[in-house]
Amino acid sequence: MIKPHPAIVDFPVVLLSMAALFAVISLFKKNDFVKRAAFWNLFLGVIGAIAAVLTGLIEEQNLIHNEEIHQILVKHKFNGFAIMILSQILLTWYWVRKNKFGRKEYILWVSLLVIAPVMIIYQGFLGGRMVYDEGAGVKPMELQLEKEGESPGSHHHSDAQGGHEHNNHQDTSSSKKIQPVSGHEHNKGQDTASSKKAAVEKKKELKDMKY
Questions:
Q1: pTM of whole model > 0.70?
Q2: Which of 14, 23, 93, 128 shows its CA 20 to 30 Å from the CA of 148?
């Protein structure tokens, strides 16, 4: 079964980061399109953040973990909540004040929005530690392979590449070759030739004695 949380987290990561980028650009470029792009990326990023938090909480209920994973998981969970709440506050702030923003207030709003990608980087670091360092939620493939009678690192593709068929072909070709005469059959032939030669010589001696 595919877990939804890893598939969903990419959306708020990209959307909130793009919102911060457009917001910074809007400080130097007087263009309403850039501000609108920042707003809509933030709006979609908030939806993605809510979905990421919800799926993360659901998967937490069935996650097998130890104390090390639990300590990282607590930080990961609360940092995820912080990202979601911060993005919601900034979205609401912009929605209410978008036509009343002063220069200083808008700079403050952009500065807080830039914090979101920093928190996202930390969130990814915590998630990476849980998965890659501690193995949280990862199926133990090496143990599974050993149960199936294979050792890790011994996987090969000889059958898939036709190695098995090639060996069969070689065996068939070899079977068509003329088999060497066995030692017993060779000796038997020699004995027969010797007995014929002895019979001829014996016959010759009898003929000589007759005359």
A1: no
A2: 128
* Side-chain-facing half-sphere of 94: CA atoms under 13 Å: 24
pLDDT of residue 51: 95
Contacts of 5 (CB under 8 A, 6+ apart): 52, 55, 56, 58, 59
- Give the Cα-Cα-Cα angle 33, 36, 42 (nearest 5 degrees): 145
Measured between its terminal Cα atoms, the distance across the chain in Å is: 107
**What region does 137 belong to: left with phi over 0, alpha with psi -120 to 50, or beta?**
left
Q: Report the b/e string of 63-99 with b at 16+ CB within 10 A.
A: eebeeebeebbeebbebbeebbebbeebbebbeeeee
| Degrees, nearest 5: CA angle 28-30-31 | 120
User: Three-state DSSP class for 131?
Assistant: helix
Compute how many other C-beta atoms are within 10 angstroms of the C-beta atom of residue 19: 29
Name the DSSP class of 129: I
Neighbouring residues of 87: CB distance < 8 A, sequence distance ≥ 6: 12, 16, 42, 45, 46, 49, 116
* All structural domains of the chain: 4-137 (1.20.120)
Write phi, then psi, for 204 (nearest 5 degrees).
Answer: -65, -40
Rounded CA separation 77/72 (Å) = 9
Q: Tens digit of pLDDT for each residue in 83-97?
A: 999 999 999 999 998
